[in-house]
Automatic annotation (TrEMBL):
Compositionally biased residues, Basic residues: 314-329
Protein name: Cdc42-interacting protein 4 isoform X2
Record key words, sorted: Cell membrane, Coiled coil, Cytoplasm, Cytoskeleton, Endocytosis, Lipid-binding, Lysosome, Membrane, Phosphoprotein, SH3 domain
Amino acid composition bias (Polar residues), ranges on this chain: 289-302
Species of provenance: Heterocephalus glaber (Naked mole rat)
Length: 611
């Protein structure tokens, strides 16, 4: 079924319908254009939102970027940014493939429709003109027929009138004959005009207008098909980005699953671990000692707490404090918690101070020092610390990490300098430059040999500078690592609560010739002397003994011990040692390390296996 056959008489209806179809096409183009603007505004707002919440600092300078939750949030923002990019792609596709193309197609359709309807109107105008001519010839034929009939009647009346002359009768007959001839011509003209009009009308209704209507039908169907394709482009633009949007959503899900609470806790530890040892306990200040003091308390043979010295039946020797140091005098220092000075170190018994009267010194310190509790701020350092090149203003652990980073950077720079300068190392570079210099000297036209001197000098200077910096940072790093290990050992000892070292001093092993047992009880704490001397209070000695020359067994260190005083030796947890002398009852055992060195360690810190 087509319009030319079924709608041959609906010219105005077809005109309104085709106009409505083009208006619908224009409305859809306008809709897509506004939809494109919405998509572009949406993408722009999404990008602005992502930019607002993205970290402002570079990743390497932002410690928060090491946390998985921050990394996941940044990844989520990046996925949202990619999602915004896909919305922009949708807007671009709709703008190009729908708005521009359909708008252009709409203009073409309007021109084609206008042409078809102009052709139809011309055909209608021609048919109407033919009908007017037919009507005109018809009216002429009708008028001529009346005139001829009237002339005939007039001639017949004159012919019967006896009073009429022959001339009048002949004239009337001639007039009647003329009118009849004119009527006959008008009849023939009318007939011809009618035949022509009928032919034109048949052509108009059966051929010309059906063709125009069929063209309009084809145009409208093509417009409808193209509009349906435009409808499909709207969904096609969305479907085109669905896989990438799905990847964005999957990336958001992966970012959500990547949040690791345990890892973030460990990162926080790595970032802010200071490496300091925990503060020791606040010590008890016995202000009642002067009241209980007896005249004999001032003697060096009696402990300051008034308890009698217990002696064993075995051999004894001079008391030595395991943490005393033979160094230059230093002023009294406060304990980590801000209280009076502590004579008990974390991994050893109390060290002796000086031979002066301990109560008098305690009284002086109590007057000059006000005990206070240390805050967390005092433990981690003040805010206004001066930044130093070796990062000594940082806590030990952070100092070690920063030095490690600097060392790695310097090594990379050194390697880069060497790689850029010569593929096979420094010597090859210098040799190559020297050879080039010799070539330039022999053939000056190839180049100026003096131009290579600055390059050789600069290369060697840069490499030497980087080597010195690497050595400098390696030395600083070794020092920082030793400090961290020392603090870590102290903290570990207090954390795992190893047995307290014996209160008595280890035997004197400075000469490795004498040794004895020691069973005296621990003397009371005494403040450091003002002159800084490390003279022990107890100076009783026993008989000498011969040192064994071969180990009598093996032992393993259960805990870490920092042998920082005279006569002691440090050991690491799990270290294998040679047993040189058993515990004589004073809580100390003499051992020998595999790498050399002998000294005393607390017996409770060992697992002993005798031969």
């Amino acid at each position: 079924m087509d319009w030319g056959t079924e709608l041959w008489d609906q010219f105005e209806v077809l005109e309104r319908h085709t106009q409505w179809g083009l208006d619908l096409l224009d409305r859809y183009v306008k809709f897509v254009k506004e939809r494109t603007e919405v998509e572009q505004a949406y993408a722009k707002q999404l990008r602005s939102l992502v930019k607002k919440y993205l970290p402002k600092r570079p990743t390497k300078d932002d410690p928060e970027s090491k946390f998985s939750q921050q990394q996941s949030f940044v990844q989520l923002l990046q996925e949202v940014n990619d999602f915004a990019g896909q919305r922009e792609l949708v807007a671009e596709n709709l703008s190009v493939r729908v708005c521009l193309e359909l708008a252009k197609y709409s203009q073409e359709m309007k021109q084609e429709r206008k042409m078809h309807f102009q052709e139809g109107r011309r055909a209608q105008q021609q048919l109407e003109n033919g009908f007017k001519q037919l009507e005109s010839s018809k009216r002429k034929f009708e008028r001529d027929c009346r005139e001829a009939e009237k002339a005939t009647q007039t001639a017949e009346r004159l012919d019967q009138d006896i009073n009429a002359t022959k001339a009048d009768v002949e004239k009337a007959k001639q007039q009647a004959h003329l009118r009849s001839h004119m009527a006959e011509e008008s009849k023939n003209e009318y007939a011809a005009q009618l035949q022509r009009f009928n032919r034109d009308q048949a052509h108009f209704y059966f051929s010309q207008m059906p063709q125009i209507f069929d063209k309009l039908q084809d145009m409208d169907e093509r417009r409808t098909t193209r509009l349906g394709t435009g409808y499909g482009l709207l969904s096609g633009a969305e479907l085109q980005v669905v896989p990438i949007i799905a990847k964005c959503l999957e990336g958001m899900k992966v970012a959500a699953d990547a949040v690791d609470a345990k890892n973030d806790s460990q990162v926080l530890i790595e970032l802010h671990k200071s490496g300091f040892a925990r503060p020791s306990d606040v010590e008890f200040e016995d202000f009642s000692q002067p009241m209980n003091r007896a005249p004999s308390d001032s003697s060096l043979g009696t402990p300051s707490d008034g308890r009698p010295e217990v002696r064993g039946t075995g051999r004894s020797r001079a008391k030595r404090w395991p943490f005393s140091k033979k160094n230059k005098p230093r002023p009294p220092s406060l304990s980590p918690l801000g209280g009076p000075p502590s004579s008990v170190l974390p991994n050893g018994p109390p060290s002796p101070r000086s031979g002066l009267d301990p109560l008098a010194i305690l009284s002086e310190i109590s007057k000059s020092v006000k005990p206070r509790l240390a805050s967390f701020r005092s433990l981690r350092g003040g805010r206004g610390a001066v930044v130093t090149e070796d990062f000594s203003h940082l806590p030990p652990e952070q100092q070690r990490k920063r030095l490690q980073q600097q060392l790695e950077e310097r090594n990379r720079e050194l390697q880069k300098e060497v790689d850029q300068s010569a593929g096979n190392g420094i010597l090859d570079l210098v040799e190559a430059l020297k050879k080039m210099k010799d070539v330039y000297e022999k053939t000056p036209q190839m180049g100026d040999p003096a131009s290579l001197e600055p390059q050789i000098t600069e290369t060697l200077r840069n490499i030497e500078r980087l080597k010195l910096e690497v050595q400098k940072y390696e030395a600083w790093l070794a020092e920082a690592e030793s400090r961290v290990l020392s603090n870590r050992g102290d903290s570990l000892n207090r954390h795992t609560r190893p047995p307290d070292p014996p209160a008595s001093a280890p035997p004197d092993s400075s000469s490795n010739s004498n040794s004895g047992s020691q069973e005296n009880k621990e003397s009371s704490e005494e403040p450091p002397s003002e002159d800084g001397q490390d003279t022990p209070i107890y100076t009783e000695f026993d008989e000498d003994f011969e040192e064994p020359t071969s180990p009598i067994g093996q032992c393993v260190a259960i805990y870490h011990f920092e042998g920082s005083s005279e006569g002691t030796i440090s050991m690491a947890e799990g270290e294998d040692l040679s047993l040189m002398e058993e515990d004589k009852g004073d809580g100390w055992t003499r051992v020998r390390r595999k790498q050399g060195g002998e000294g005393y360690v607390p017996t409770s810190y060992l697992r002993v296996m005798l031969n």
